[in-house]
Amino acid sequence: MPKISVIIPVYNGERFVAETIHGVLAQTYHDLELIVVDDGSTDRTGDIVTALLPASYHYQPNAGVGPARNTGFALASGEYVAFLDADDVWHPRMLEHTVAALDADPQLDVVYTDAALLDEKGQVTGGGTAPELTNLLPALLMSCFIISPGSVLLRRRVVEQVGGFRNLQIGEDWDFYLRLAVVEARFRHLPYPLQGYRLHGGNITAQRDWSTFVENMVLPDIYRLGLPLGVPPLGLAQAHRYMYAAYRTLGQGKFWPALRHVSGALLLHPLSVFTYFGRRALLRLLVGRRWANGLERWLRHRRYQGMDERVRQYWG
């Protein structure tokens, strides 16, 4: 029985899935099984994957990324589980570091890492970092700061405890992490850029209708589970999601839908204007996307220049 099950859900992923699989097979840690769940692809994904043994290939009618991950988990036998998107890649030592962390602490349930940001050609363009927190739930209710599922390794038992991923059109990974935090799963951050997160025009995030994002919010269900004292009020957490949707919608050049999101946020909680994405959305509204993007790039360069260079060196 392998120690780790790596599950890759894929839909029409012919551009990048081979590189993703090669990154798993190139790991310095080898005690793993690789399961690829094809969620109804209509391109050459199936032919590409089946040619790349020893990946296990399973085809199913299109059901969405959450059900595809659950299918892979049902086929998995490993003690530890990773869910890797089909356009992302791993640094060769991803599993070496994350397995060591889980092995060293039997009470630890989830390990998440930083990431290298990649362009369509796989070149490192910068770095993404996750915060080091002892109490994740309050911050996680406001924002999904875990960069993507590919930056996470977790124990099988906690996936079973929360019932895997829900079938949501948007935010299924955020919902999953929230439910893990609610059942008091123990998280640990590893400050190494071990995942390569690819930014390209075909990303689900890039194509997203952010109106659907705010209409399909997971927060009310999470708050109904009964949360401890000290978490932000539901209205503020919901309003921050509206501000996030406004920020991303402005990035797509859609002014009036973004303005509706901002109005919705302010109706839910006036203080949402002072949240992280509240400030960024208002900046884009006031000065326009072009000027705001330029200012954000300049600020990011000043703040993360050293980190970006370290990420490039780490990935060679």
Write the layout of secondary structure elements.
Layout: E1 4-10, H1 17-25, E2 32-39, H2 45-50, E3 56-60, H3 65-75, E4 80-83, E5 89-90, H4 94-104, E6 110-118, E7 124-128, H5 136-142, E8 152-155, H6 156-162, H7 172-182, E9 187-198, H8 204-207, H9 210-215, H10 219-223, H11 234-251, H12 255-268, H13 276-287, H14 289-315
Parallel strand pairs: 1-2, 1-4, 2-3, 6-9
Antiparallel strand pairs: 4-8, 5-9, 6-7, 6-8
Describe the structure.
- This protein is α/β, with parallel strands linked by helices and 316 residues long.
- β2 (32-39), α2 (45-50) and β3 form a beta-alpha-beta unit.
- The protein has two domains: 4-205, Alpha-Beta Complex (Spore Coat Polysaccharide Biosynthesis Protein SpsA, Chain A); 208-315, no CATH class.
- Strands 1, 2, 3, 4, 5, 6, 7, 8 and 9 form a nine-stranded mixed sheet that branches.
- The relative contact order is 0.12.
- The chain has helices at 17-25, 45-50, 65-75, 94-104, 136-142, 156-162, 172-182, 204-207, 210-215, 219-223, 234-251, 255-268, 276-287, 289-315, and strands spanning 4-10, 32-39, 56-60, 80-83, 89-90, 110-118, 124-128, 152-155, 187-198.
- The radius of gyration is 19 Å and the shape is globular.
Q: Would you kindly provide a brief summary of this structure?
A:
With about 325 residues, the protein is of the alpha/beta class. The chain has helices at about 15-25, 45-50, 65-75, 95-105, 135-140, 155-160, 170-180, 205, 210-215, 220-225, 235-250, 255-270, 275-285, 290-315; strands spanning about 5-10, 30-40, 55-60, 80-85, 90, 110-120, 125-130, 150-155, 185-200.
